[in-house]
Model the fold of this input.
Amino acid sequence: MKWIDKLAWIYIKDRKILSTRSKGKDTFYFPGGKREVGESDHETLIREVKEELTVDLVPDSLAFFGKFEAQAHGHAEGIIVVMTCYVANYTGELKPDAEIEELAWLTYADKHKSSAVDQIIFDHLINHDLID
Done:
């Protein structure tokens, strides 16, 4: 079995979760991405969120949220994405950058717009009464 190691930022405001959609795609993903060689979880997440949304995560505020896995969206059957998630505060103004075309605040009703692993996280969020 092949694994894809990814990190995601879980940011909830007004009981909605921040999500992003890349240019030319129709699926939303939580901000974050793949680790580069030698990077820690925190380094990966800080770099990816800065690239995608122009904001700086506050390193001291990063807290582990959970680890989730599912079939990787857009990959061959049996390729599993392992998503390590953190919550964190940020400084700056959220705006799409790099490959990101749109940012959106999603509720549980929007779960179907997301990748399989994000849908599992949506279930976790609703089960813990964190989103509407």
